[in-house]
Amino acid sequence: MRGSSHLAIGLITGVGIAAVVPDVRFSLPGIALAGFSSLAPDLDHPNSRLSKRMGFMQNYVRWAFAAAAVLLAVYAYLNLPPGPNQRVAFTGALSMFLIGMAMQNQSARKLALLFTGVVAVGAGLYWQFLWLSLLGAFVAAAPFTSHRSFTHTIWAAALWTYIGHLANKDLGWHGVAAYAGAGYLSHLLADTLTKSGVRYLLPLSDYAVKLPLISTGSAAGNLLEIGICAGYGLLIALLWWQRYQLG
Q1: How far apart are CA 24 and CA 174, in angstroms?
Q2: Per residue in 189-215, pLDDT tens?
């Protein structure tokens, strides 16, 4: 399913949370969190919306390697006497430069997401926010997994919901776990409607649960995605109408 459809379904899910969960209030930040969470499973895909946004530094990673190589070479020339140590430093600088120049966009994207995740892990440790460290670990690890593997499992959804639970405790924002968990699960359920399906129980089981209605990228598939989003939105609107009728 396309990223735009996942985002729409996630946002609609966020709107519906307050309608079906009694102790969670309607919240625009909560809806935004559900939308963000609905894109999180596709951090394992190089062309996903969230992967591109969070890997915003990928265009600079290669040049960062080249710049570091130049700095190392200059340092070695100015501060190390001629000899084995200087030659090792020059060799390291040349290696870094060649790696940077040979690095493809996907490698740069993975390194950018790895750096973003590591920074979040460090910030979480510094401020003693376990949820932030776990979020950073998720962001750092996801790009190095194959598409629709770990991030598309019930275990990943449970981890994401737990991160929301911890954030709720630290930030005092009630409903984080509900918005985050529901948004994440909306992605998995939507991908269940595609031909590839979702292997919810990896690595315990390689069985893919699927109801192959959607052919992603095809004209018919795109129209069906729009119809599903519209129908889902109508369902949530009916739930809200029923709640106001009863209340």
Answers
A1: 7
A2: 999 999 999 999 999 999 999 999 888
